[in-house]
Amino acid sequence: MQLRIFEWFSQTKQDGARSTAKDRMRNMLTHDRLELPAGRLESLEEELVAVVSRYFELDKDTTQFDLQQYERRASLIANFRLLRSKC
Fold it and tell me: In whole angstroms, how large is the CA radius of gyration of the chain?
């Protein structure tokens, strides 16, 4: 059963809805394994935006966060589109 779930996550061709559902499931599993309380990840994302916004003007509509897990390690990937420096 676990192998099928892994295979499902590693498929390469996906339609939009399937891809979105897969990403949500992956985030839920990673969130669960990290034992983050509800709302903690959203709070972290807001804080990161606030800190980066002190130094750069951001395009907040394109800001993205992705929580990924590789083996037993997790990564939070933040993608900020920087419009200009505030320095």
Answer: 16
What total of structural domains would you count in the chain? 1
User: Domain range for residue 69?
Assistant: 2-85
Contact between 66 and 44 under an 8 Å Cβ cutoff? The reply is: no
Note the pTM of the prediction, 2 decimals: 0.60
SS3 string of the chain?
CHHHHHHHHCCCCCCHHHHHHHHHHHHHHHHHHHCCCCCHHHHHHHHHHHHHHHHEEECCCCCEEEEEEECCEEEEEEECCEEEECC
Q: Give average pLDDT by consecutive 10-residue segment, the chain, 87 residues.
A: 53 65 72 73 90 94 84 84 92
